[in-house]
């Protein structure tokens, strides 16, 4: 157990160290720019720093929201209440999960710890998958941002919302079929380390009497802080790699094939994955591509990115088994592409 704790502490310190370095470059850019050091740094790497910080600073508020919701679920949502809320029939449970995603404003950064916690509390794996892919798109905040970004082309707005709802249920059904005989797909090593990390006396205090409000707040903060530092490592790694792709990817080559229906859809799905934009803001970025890319590919960008991007891929691999994550990524990619192609001549 001491080796596990040392490993966790080492990873936390490394992640925080990287973040502090980039924050220092951001906060003291004026002073650094006056030194000779900055002249030796290529402009491309300065751009990497800027993009990295924009992704991290954009995502952190939603990560905080997600980990606090996760902490509340851990402390106040019982397995019995989850079982009462969901229909006993596995297929019938898919629709309520999609509806739940439509009312809770969580982006793809915040949703991962929430879904992991719900599955640990007893939510079926396939229902968690529906919630995982539906909530970052269907929530009211994303609806509003997409409306303002595409108010002159509401077909994109309704295509995004309608397609996301249907495809979320379909993705959940496919993964239920694949894993119904082996639904336990959370990584055991993560569960073990978290259990030891939360154990008394290192973690949350065990109360023999009914906890008071200060004790409850203390427990929430303990859980939320543990989740935040654990998620933060993967956010930083994913954001850094996404910033690298944004800086060094040859966009001119990709834009040259933007007029082809199939090629442009693949390209925009690739953009959505690599750019790792927060779902609350991605519509405004997508609207900037409207002149070069087809409406079909824009919808693919808006549906695929919140379901699967580079930074949440690292989080998924951290908390779920590799076989499940690979199946999830393949299913989401194929289903989104097929769904967008299906509606391309009908609505768009």
SSE topology sketch:
Elements: H1 2-27, H2 29-33, H3 36-39, H4 43-76, H5 79-85, H6 94-101, H7 108-120, H8 125-138, H9 140-149, H10 154-179, H11 188-198, H12 213-248, H13 251-255, H14 261-275, H15 282-287, H16 295-307, H17 310-319, H18 322-344
Helix pairs in contact: 1-4, 1-12, 4-7, 4-12, 6-8, 6-10, 7-8, 7-17, 8-10, 8-16, 10-16, 10-18, 12-17, 14-16, 14-18, 16-18
Describe this structure in words.
- This protein has helices at 2-27, 29-33, 36-39, 43-76, 79-85, 94-101, 108-120, 125-138, 140-149, 154-179, 188-198, 213-248, 251-255, 261-275, 282-287, 295-307, 310-319, 322-344.
- It is an all-alpha fold and 348 residues long.
- It has one domain.
- The relative contact order is 0.13.
- Mean pLDDT is 77; it is low at 190-208.
Helix/strand-derived category reads mainly alpha
Radius of gyration over C-alpha positions, nearest whole angstrom: 21 Å
Percent in strands: under 5%
Count the beta strands. Answer: 0
Outline type: globular
What is the straight-line distance between the termini?
Answer: 56 Å
The main β sheet shows up as: none
- The poorly predicted ranges are 190-208
N-to-C SSE series? Answer: HHHHHHHHHHHHHHHHHH
The number of helical runs is 18
Helix content: over 70%
What's the pLDDT, averaged over the residues? Answer: 77
Whole-number tally of structural domains: 1
Summarize the structure.
This protein is about 75% helix and about 0% strand. The protein has about 350 residues and is mostly helical. Helix 1 crosses helix 4 (about 45-75), helix 7 runs antiparallel to helix 8 (about 125-140) and helix 8 packs across helix 16.
């Amino acid at each position: 157990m001491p080796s596990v704790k040392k490993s966790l502490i080492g990873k936390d310190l490394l992640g925080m160290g990287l973040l502090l370095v980039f924050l220092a470059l951001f906060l003291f850019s004026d002073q650094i720019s006056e030194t000779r050091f900055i002249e030796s740094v290529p402009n491309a790497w300065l751009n990497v720093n800027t993009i990295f910080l924009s992704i991290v600073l954009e995502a952190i508020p939603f990560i905080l929201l997600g980990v606090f919701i996760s902490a509340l679920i851990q402390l106040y949502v019982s397995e019995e209440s989850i079982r009462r809320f969901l229909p006993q029939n596995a297929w019938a449970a898919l629709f309520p999960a999609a509806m739940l995603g439509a009312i809770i404003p969580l982006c793809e950064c915040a949703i991962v710890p929430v879904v992991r916690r719900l599955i640990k509390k007893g939510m079926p794996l396939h229902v968690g998958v529906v919630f995982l892919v539906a909530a970052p798109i269907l929530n009211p905040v994303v609806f509003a941002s997409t409306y303002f970004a595409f108010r002159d082309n509401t077909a994109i707005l309704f295509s995004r919302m309608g397609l996301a709802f249907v495809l979320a249920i379909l993705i959940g059904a496919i993964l239920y079929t694949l894993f119904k005989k082996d639904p336990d797909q959370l990584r055991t090593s993560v569960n073990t380390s978290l259990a030891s990390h939360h154990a008394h006396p290192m973690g949350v205090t065990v109360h023999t009497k009914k906890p008071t409000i200060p004790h409850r707040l203390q427990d929430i903060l303990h859980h939320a802080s543990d989740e935040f530092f654990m998620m933060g490592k993967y956010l930083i790694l994913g954001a850094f790699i996404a910033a690298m792709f944004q800086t060094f990817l040859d966009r001119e080559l990709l834009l040259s094939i933007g007029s082809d229906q199939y090629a442009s859809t693949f390209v925009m799905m690739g953009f959505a994955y690599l750019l790792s934009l927060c779902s609350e803001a991605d519509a405004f970025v997508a609207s900037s591509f409207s002149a070069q890319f087809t409406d079909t590919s824009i919808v693919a960008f808006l549906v695929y990115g919140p379901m699967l991007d580079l930074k949440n891929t690292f989080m998924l691999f951290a908390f779920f088994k590799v076989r499940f994550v690979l199946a999830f990524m393949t299913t989401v990619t194929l289903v989104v592409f097929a769904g967008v192609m299906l509606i391309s001549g009908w609505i768009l």
